Amino acid sequence: MPPQKRHRDFGWLFIVCAGLLPLVLGILCTAIEARHTVNQQQVSTANTLLSQAEKMSDSAWNMITTLRQYHHRACADIEENLQRAGTLNAYFRSIGMLQGDHISCSSAYGLNHGALAEMMLQPPPVTGKAWWSLSIRGTLGVPDRPAVIFVRQLPDSSGFWAVIDGQYLMDFMHAIGESRGYQMTLQFNGGAIISSGPDEQPGQLYLKSAQYRAESSRYPISVNVTVPATELVKAWRQALFIFLPMAAIFSILLMVLTANWLRRRLSWADEIRRAMRNRQFSVHYQPVYSTDIERCKGAEALMRWQLPNGEMIRPDIFISHAESEGVIVPLTQHLLDLMAEDIQSWQVEPDFHIGFNVAAEHLQHPDFVQDVMRFARRIKDKQMTITLELTERSLIEDGEMVARKLRHLQSHGMKVAIDDFGTGHCALSYLMTFPLDYLKIDRGFINAVEGLETETPVLDAIINLCHKLELDVLGEGVETSLQFAYLRQRGVGLIQGYYYARPMDNDRLRAWLNEHGRKPLLVEESHEPELHHS
Ligand code: G
Ligand code: G
Ligand code: MN
């Protein structure tokens, strides 16, 4: 499991969130959309009502203009005409003439002509204008049904008036608003309110009832349209009904994508790529001792991975995952970059060996030679010897091509070593086929050493084989002075292991090279009795 596996514990949370996201967004968007649609309908309804009220006002003023032909005529003469005009024209409850504040003539049957205030059941407004209109609760003849009165006063204190029945307006409001549950009101000149529809109900939160007010530009008419919350909810539910199936599909899609993304994100390959970008890898170097020149002869580069929390990932684990998930090539390229950076600060003598581990897949890769040559160019001025440590496994496939590559690199002064020699599953024939420079004997064989004079058959055989084939030989994992003395005695030229030096980071390596790099390794003598006693 990749190092940052803790992400996985919250994986389901990501997936749930991804699934909820389209739903939550959808619910919000449809609420906004529903509100928007309802508002548009509300505005157009208000405007329709307003224009109807304007049309009625137009016909009232037209009527009054027509009445001016009766100016200065006696009521008895014109009463019949008034009655005809009042009945034949739509909307009108009554029309008539004024003398001062007094109604001098009216189309209404059988009523005593009284004061204007008496007829409209309230004092006339003080407008100071010759033209005015007002919505009123009722008239003397029809006291409990609203109406609108229009009055034109002439300079000689006579005048004309017309009363439109509010029922027309109420019916109209009903017709345009009932199906949507609108509550509508209409007012002329701030007078009595003519209304239709249910009373306002309390709404909740976002979906509380919405009010819209419109005013006429031609007449003092104002209109109010209120949409109850229940209508908003209804519109919202309709929008949801259309949208929800789509949201569900999106939801599923997003969950699948998230799950996929999480899986990818949690793969080793992605963790390793990210770790390279975040510079979590570093290189440690383990010095190699030469028993011939009795000093440090080189170092092996070993990759280290430290997480931001300080935790180290074991190299055998991440290397094997890098190999199986196809990122070992970029990882090794990264290693070479890091090494080239480190090596710029080194001061070593020419022919210092710098070894690094080459994965089988990299060896087969078309970029391999180019990668190594680039590294060689970057550290050219140090005049080091680059050592490629191959595993036996890497030599199995496409041997001829691999051998060609290795020969090419050797022609540029590099050395080829077999790492962990003796542990792979390989025929010894490759010792003849491949251009090898030395073998690194696996520490398993070194561990078998029991005493300086005791034979260690397999180890001895490997050492002899190297001598016969004229290959250099390196003993790995040397941890004791006995092992060291044993190998030196049998002509093993190179030693690597904790006994000589542990792998260390670049800074410590430079300090170590300064202090110990040129010194011979002093070995305590009497290990043989020691070992027998213990
Ligand atoms: O130090 P140590 O624990 O580093 O190494 C464990 C294993 O990981 C060893 O077999 C070693 O060869 C391998 N290893 C360490 N660094 C690298 C590297 O950079 N590339 C490859 N291919 N193997 C490495
Ligand atoms: O590349 P190779 O498989 O040779 O990797 C060397 C590995 O051996 C690294 O993991 C390194 O840390 C480890 N190592 C080096 N010296 C010793 C040693 O003396 N003892 C043990 N146990 N491991 C060692
Ligand atoms: Mn190695």
TrEMBL record:
Keyword terms, alphabetized: c-di-GMP, Cell membrane, Hydrolase, Membrane, Transmembrane, Transmembrane helix
Subcellular location(s) of the protein: Cell membrane
CDD domains: EAL
TM stretches of this protein: 240-262
Enzymatic class: hydrolase
Membrane topology recorded in Swiss-Prot or TrEMBL: Multi-pass membrane protein
Main subcellular localisation: membrane
The enzyme's E.C. designation: 3.1.4.52
Name of the molecule in the record: cyclic-guanylate-specific phosphodiesterase
Record organism: Pantoea wallisii
